[in-house]
Design goal:
The protein has 189 residues and is α+β, with helices and mostly antiparallel strands. Helices cover 24% and strands 22% of the residues. It has four helices and eight strands.
């Protein structure tokens, strides 16, 4: 079922950029969001805010979120630029159920899978699910390419610089400094 921007409007459910200082980073469930095709919305920012509003209705509570980060499209910089961010969430859903929810939200927002890395109305990736590691029945955790992407590690470092990668043990702040993909990514204020 596809919806239009008039059916989802960010409202009181939208949250501000913040983090609860009591948040357990070892148990952090981190989701990355991205958009470079505004679809039915007036902008990628509006589409991403609407996606965040949808999370709560799906049983996914936002505990912290980054600002939005702009970057050139990767790997083809001639594609429209991206807007990205991350959220730390709380959910009773296991990793597979959470991935199914994220896929359903992408579908609702008009995500079409054509060729790899094509422009998209919404891209939701499960970056980490607490300290889970490895191949979890076809789901690789943590996300296998997140550590190399500044448009993922930068937003994580912005809200949780001391979060440690479940495999490498490196802090998000250090990983953002060494990320090799999307080096032009920067926060919008």
């Amino acid at each position: 079922m596809e919806i239009t921007s008039s059916e989802i409007v960010p409202g009181p459910e939208a949250v501000s950029v913040n983090i609860d200082e009591n948040l357990d980073l070892d148990g952090a469930v981190i989701v990355a969001l991205g958009c470079n095709d505004k679809g039915a919305w007036s902008s990628c920012r509006e589409a991403l805010e609407a996606a965040l509003a949808r999370f709560r209705r799906e049983g996914v509570d936002i505990l912290a979120r980054s600002s939005w980060w702009a970057s050139q499209a990767w790997p083809d910089p001639s594609d429209p630029p991206f807007l990205n961010g991350v959220v730390i969430v709380r959910t009773a859903h296991d990793p597979h159920a959470l991935m199914a929810i994220l896929g359903r939200i992408e579908d609702i927002f008009g995500r079409r899978r054509s060729v790899p890395n094509a422009p998209r109305t919404l891209d939701l990736d499960l970056i980490a699910y607490g300290r889970e590691q490895g191949d979890c029945e076809g789901l690789i955790l943590p996300h296998p390419r997140a550590a190399d992407r500044l448009f993922v590690m930068g937003p994580i470092a912005e809200i949780a610089p001391e979060w440690r990668h479940p495999e490498s043990g490196r802090a998000a702040s250090a990983m953002a400094g060494s990320a090799t993909v999307g080096r032009d990514a920067h926060p919008l204020r």
